[in-house]
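Record 1 of the preview.
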Amino acid sequence: MGKIDPRVIKTRSKLKKAFLTLLSTHKLTEMNVKDLTQTADVTRGTFYLHYKDKETFIKIMMEELINEYFDTVIFNVALDDDKEELQPVLSLVHTFEYVGERPDFFTVLLKENDALVYQTAFSNQLFAYIQQHQAKNSDLSESKVPKELLMSFLTYGLLGYIDSWLVNGKIYANHFMATNLQKMLDSALIKEAGLESFFVTDATEVENVVR
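->
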């Protein structure tokens, strides 16, 4: 793959920052190209050189932010000191660090009807990592927890907990929020699904982390 022109990277970065800024005052359907280009300080022509239309741009931004979140919070941990056998874990401290930097994105993800498709994408990606984690534990293959119940509990539980933190002005520290969420996740449902070791307070403190 050829090297991307730095000017392209700079323009896309400016538009992404504009998108995140506008999320605090605009619903997804209310956002328009004029607002985006004025906030990013680029021309309409420049916008259309990079994106087909507003809908395509929003889709790309939302999917990019979801992928960025998981790239930030998922760590691979070696099994039994075997660097060839890895399982993913989700760092709750890194979750709250990322949310603190992108609060409006998570508010939109949780509360906007127009973001339901992205909630589903978020849930599906979370479930994919859960499946990878479970696959490394052969004795859990007979888990009786239905996917829809597990993912409803995890997705809305996680996003709801995050929303409460944001609504209250992030008055508690990242580590405090992560530690207490991990305690709340110590439930029969999580144990039945074999996910006690999937959610960790801080992945950087876990032994045998491989990034």
